[in-house]
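Intended use. Records like the one below are meant for learning the mapping from a protein sequence to its folded structure. Do not use them to infer anything beyond what is encoded.
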Amino acid sequence: MQQSGQRQLALKGYSPQRSPNKFTSNLLNISNKFTGTGGMTSSLAPKKPKAPQKVPKTDIFRASTFVETTLFKKYYDRGDLPIAVNFTGAVRKIVWKCEPEALDYHLYLPIFFEGLREVEEPYKFLAVNGCQELLDRGENKILSVLPQLIIPIKKALSTKNHDIMCITLKKIQKLVKSGQMIGEALVPYYRQILPVMNMFKNKRLNIGDKIDYSQRKNENLSDLIQETLETLEKNGGEDAYINIKYMIPTYESCMF
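Structure written out for the chain above:
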């Protein structure tokens, strides 16, 4: 009988060396088998208040990630712009299919200002350099087109993209200096183009004792805005300072 019992235990996988460990492990894990609230202590102390949720950031200075397709890109892809890129030589240049003076400024100048929002090549290169040459050779044609340039300038500044804003501010300075009376004619439109400048006017980068290389390239946004406002005041006539001060209260005149 004893031998038959040992044989049955052997068939079941019984081992005298493993059975004590298995028995003790069951005793240690008894808390895992029985769950419940019995025997738990309760406290009458007031519960700690939950920490208030942090207010989400507005990200008012964040650049817009979506830039809608511009008229400049559509016209260039269709081949309706009289401009191309010349790759001969070490530096890229633009080639006009006709003289810029012969172009209809009412049609093409607003399209080139629309292209200032482009970030892809070759659209960005063509728009920036094409706009520069049109302003250089425009003479008396620019003043009559000025109202059509306000919306493209406003859209470019509203992107809050650092590179686009720097390019647009430089073109505003060039626009004001490109002809007589343009600075004065731009005064009624300050309410559309100055609010974004007011946001970024005092936004400076604190880099401690490091070197800001953007100053050498004239890409420091705060300094560029200050320079643009001074250009607008100098070329805007008597009412320029009052209107700039109304939109940007922290601006101080450079004329007095």
